[in-house]
Design goal:
This protein is α+β, with helices and mostly antiparallel strands. Helices cover about 30% and strands about 25% of the residues. The strands form 2 sheets. Strands 2-1-5-4-3-8-9 form a 7-stranded mixed sheet. A two-stranded antiparallel ribbon has the order 6-7.
């Protein structure tokens, strides 16, 4: 499988629109290329729906999205129309692109070793180098994670900055850092005075 930093191989595959599509068709663009096993199966349907739902956001970030499977162009069209998909679907029955990207080979399904398409995604930069490579993709949440990476310029995901404190919270925090507050915090708490019981008085006879 290709790794980050590798040169992305070009390809020429027929799309669901009947036109040949290649990597060279998108100069200056980031290309999200994802491989999936089969049209109209549960996981593949959810994955294609998720990428389709985020298609406008990918476009706004300067990226194009291409899905690839071994399915025929006719099957791609039926799949596209059934679920109203917006992504461009490419047909790779001869596995040319699958093999070039390392998206076909041995994998484990239901505890058994089988040979087939490996669910994979590649973020390819305008310089035609792989920025990120995912293999054995888990469908749920994947499209959003890829979009976040594309929006970040292909860099690693970073956690959001903590919210700025309100004026009251800032004042309280500042007061807690003052020398007097620190001294008070270190001082032991005063215990309530406990009056010892009076000793009984004994008289000699």
């Amino acid at each position: 499988m290709l790794n980050a930093g590798d040169r992305a191989p070009d390809f020429s595959l027929e799309s669901d629109s009947g036109k040949a599509v290649s990597l060279a068709d998108f100069p200056g663009k980031t290309v999200v290329l994802y491989f999936y096993p089969k049209d109209d199966t549960p996981g593949c349907t959810r994955e294609n729906q998720a990428f389709s739902a985020a298609l406008q956001a990918f476009g706004d970030a300067g990226a194009v999205v291409l899905g690839v499977s071994r399915d025929s162009v006719e099957r791609h069209r039926k799949f596209r129309d059934k679920y109203d998909l917006g992504v461009t679907l490419l047909s790779d029955p001869e596995l040319a692109a699958h093999n070039a990207y390392g998206a076909y080979g041995e994998k484990t399904m239901y505890g058994k070793k089988v040979t087939g398409a490996i669910r994979s995604t590649f973020i390819i930069g305008p310089d035609r180098k792989v920025k990120h490579a995912f293999s054995g993709v888990k469908v749920d949440g994947h499209a959003d994670a890829v979009l976040a990476l594309v929006r970040g310029g292909g860099g690693a995901l970073t956690p959001p900055a903590p919210p700025a404190p309100t004026k009251g919270a800032a004042a309280k925090s500042a007061a807690s850092r003052s020398p007097a507050a620190k001294s008070a915090a270190r001082a032991p708490a005063k215990k309530a005075a406990v009056k010892a019981p009076a000793k009984p008085v004994t008289r000699s006879r």
